[in-house]
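Follow-up to my earlier ticket, as requested here are the two runs.
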Amino acid sequence: MLARRSLSEGEVAFRLMRKGHPESEVLPVLARLRDLRLLDDAALCRQLVRSYREGRMYGPAKIAWKLASRRFPRDLVEESLREDSSPERVADAAAQALRKKYRGGIPTGREAAAKAYRFLAGRGFPPDVCRKAVGRRAAYLSEGDD
C-alpha cells in the first residue's frame, strides 16, 4: 500500500479492516509502521496542506475537506492549517487562483465578478477573502485600462 503513495494512519487502518483484518491486528501493525517511520501523519498532513494550497490553489475549507477524506484526525488537520495558512497566504492563494483561471483578467461586469467569487468559494476560500480577491483583481484591471 505504501509503495504507491504516502498514506495516513487512518487510511492504512481502513484498508486493512476492509480486507478483513480485525482491529486487534491493525493497531500493532500501525505501531510497527510508525516505528519504521513509514507512517508520519503530522509530516504528511503539513506536506499536503502546502501541496493543496500551492499546487492546486485550494482554500482552507477545501483543504480541510480533502484531509478529512484521507482520514487524518480533525485536531491534526486544524493544527496543520493553523500553522501553514496565515491570512496573507490564504489571500495570496486566492489571488493566484484567480490569475490562473482568468489569465487575460476577469471580464468586466457584475456577473463576471459573481462567477469569479463562486469559483473561489468552490475552492474553499472564505467569503471575505473571495470578496477582497475579486475586488482587488477588478481594481487592478481597471487601473491598467488607463
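Run two:
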Amino acid sequence: MRNYIAILLCLVLALPAQAKKAGKNKKEAKTECSKSPVAIATAEDSLAYAYGMAMGKQTQDIIAQLKKDLDYDIPLDIALKAMNAQLAGDTASLLLTEEQVANIYQQTGRAINAKLAEKRAQEVEKNKEEGKDYFEKLADEPGIQKTESGLMYKIEVMGTGEKPAADSHVKVNYIGKLLDGTEFDNSYKRGKPQEMMLNRVIKGWQEGLMLMPVGSKFTLYIPSDIAYGDNGLGPIPGGSSLVFDVELIEIVKEAE
C-alpha cells in the first residue's frame, strides 16, 4: 500500500485525541477557518504554524497521488469541513464513524494496489514485447551468436585463458544497460572490479560467462526470462531484457 495511505491513517488516529482535548473548550472552538491574519509570537505559535503547513503539504501530496493512481478528484472543501469538525470535537456533525473511516481506507488501499498491479502487468508485457522485437532484429546483425536459452552474445575480444565453471568465483568489469541504453550499473565507474560466484547470479550471466575464456570481452544480450523476469530488480523494470558489456578478468582461486 502506498505511503500516503499510511500517512492518512496516522492522521485519522491522531485527530480524535486532539478533538477530545479541544472538546473541553467546545464553546470556544470554531468549526470554520478564521480569515484573520495569523500572528506568530511564541515558540508554540511557530510549532503550530509549522504543523499546519506540514499537514497542508501532506494533504496536497495525497490528493495529487490519488488523482494519479485512481483518477480521483478529491473535493478539498469536504476534507476541510470534516477536519474542522474533528479538530473542534464536534462529533455530532461527523458523517462517518471511525469504523467506516477505517473501512474506506482499506477499500481505497485495495483499489490502489489493484490499479498498480494492472499498470505493472501492462508495463511488464510492454517490456517483453520490446525485448522480442529487439532480439528479432539483433539476430540479423553481423557477429551475433545465439544459444538455446535465447541468450545472444557478441565477441569483442576473445581471451586465451581458462573458462569458468558453473560454480566458479570470478572477477569481472561490466556495464549493465536497458535496451534503450539507460545504464543501471557500471563497475568501471566504481573504480573496482566486481567479484561474484557464478551460481549466485542470473542465468544469462552464468551461461554467458561460461563461454568466456579469461581475458575476454563479450557483449551479452539477455532476455528477461533469464535475467530478472517479471519482477525486475531495483532500477530494472519487470520484463526487461538487458545488455551487458562484460570483461572477464580472473577466475579467483580459493585459498587451500
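The only thing I checked on run two: The CA atoms of residues 35 and 84 lie 14 Å apart. Let me know what else you need.
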